[in-house]
């Protein structure tokens, strides 16, 4: 799809882009999206009252997300929504598009297709929340794009919470990180896993630790830039628009009460919270 071009516009006329996640993971996508859409304001929404999404019962989580978006779209009127959460989008992406046909949703799904195209050993692992690992959507991606590969799905109970703690500056132990990532590393017939798909937007925040504690080097695939590029393609490009001042961007927390460390983190990303 090609983006429409409108005449020169005052930046205050431009609708913002809404970036959604269960917690702070979507910030990994926000930082890429900002680079590509400097003329747009951003609203970051964290459903921290529902975090973590990984262990939710599917029907209840889908209902929650749809109800939340009914409110968000009415109150914020964004140009486009980026669902920067694999756990949410693999479950509720189709339902969101059906419930709100006038809104454009850009989704996040496990990067299984690019991993299958790039692997040399044919051994790929997908590190995700327990919710994403059990989704029919994820199984379909493997069947459609990676049937020639050996794909190991690794559902982590703890990593999203650990990433939240780590990014807030709390210590995270080497043993705890290793326990979560080691199941991704497989040796089979003289071949070894060479790609691990980071299929939860929280995980790229810990990629430096993953690299450090990995038993051998692999490519840690982070889809944030590809998601941002897809959003850029769909957000109308406005010729001569000025750069949007970052200090007008803000974050919404469904708890209504993010802690001090989280607020400081948001400020670091140029978001009022
Ligand atoms: N960041 C979310 C994802 O991409 C999941 C975190 C969670 O709520 O468990 O899947």
Automatic annotation (TrEMBL):
Reaction it catalyzes: L-glutamate = D-glutamate
Any one Gene Ontology molecular-function term assigned to this protein's record: glutamate racemase activity
EC numbers: 5.1.1.3
Annotated keywords: Cell shape, Cell wall biogenesis/degradation, Isomerase, Peptidoglycan synthesis
Keyword Nuclease: no
Record InterPro entries: Asp/Glu/hydantoin_racemase, Asp/Glu_race, Asp/Glu_racemase_AS_2, Glu_race
Lineage top rank: taxon: Bacteria
Top-level EC class as recorded in UniProt: isomerase
Active site, UniProt feature: 85 (proton donor/acceptor), 200 (proton donor/acceptor)
Binding-site positions, substrate: 21-22, 53-54, 86-87, 201-202
GO biological processes: cell wall organization; peptidoglycan biosynthetic process; regulation of cell shape
Xref: Pfam families: Asp_Glu_race
Pathway assigned in UniProt: Cell wall biogenesis; peptidoglycan biosynthesis
Family of this protein: Belongs to the aspartate/glutamate racemases family.
Entry function: Provides the (R)-glutamate required for cell wall biosynthesis.
The name this protein goes by in its record: Glutamate racemase
């Amino acid at each position: 799809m090609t983006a429409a071009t409108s005449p020169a516009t005052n930046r205050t006329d431009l609708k913002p882009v809404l970036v959604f996640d269960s917690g702070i993971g979507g910030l990994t996508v926000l930082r890429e999206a900002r680079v590509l859409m400097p003329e747009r304001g951003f609203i970051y929404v964290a459903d921290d009252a529902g975090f973590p999404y990984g262990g939710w019962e599917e029907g209840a989580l889908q209902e929650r997300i749809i109800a939340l978006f009914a409110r968000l779209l009415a109150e914020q009127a964004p140009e486009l929504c980026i669902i920067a959460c694999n756990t949410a989008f693999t479950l509720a992406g189709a339902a969101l598009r059906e419930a709100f046909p006038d809104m454009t949703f850009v989704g996040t799904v496990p990067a299984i297709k690019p991993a299958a195209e790039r692997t040399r050993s044919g051994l790929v692992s997908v590190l995700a929340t327990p919710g994403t690992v059990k989704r029919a959507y994820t199984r379909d991606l493997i069947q459609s794009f990676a049937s020639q590969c050996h794909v190991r799905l690794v559902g982590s109970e703890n990593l999203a919470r650990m990433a939240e703690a780590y990014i807030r500056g709390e210590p995270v132990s080497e043993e705890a990180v290793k326990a979560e990532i080691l199941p991704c590393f497989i040796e089979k017939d003289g071949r070894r896993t060479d790609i691990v798909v980071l299929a939860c937007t929280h995980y790229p925040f810990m990629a430096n630790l993953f690299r450090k504690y990995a038993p051998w080097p692999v490519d840690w695939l982070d889809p944030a830039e590809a998601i941002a590029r897809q959003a850029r393609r769909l957000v109308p490009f406005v010729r001569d628009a000025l750069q949007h001042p970052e200090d007008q961007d803000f974050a919404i927390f469904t708890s209504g009460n993010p802690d001090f460390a989280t607020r400081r983190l948001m400020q670091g990303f140029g978001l009022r919270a």
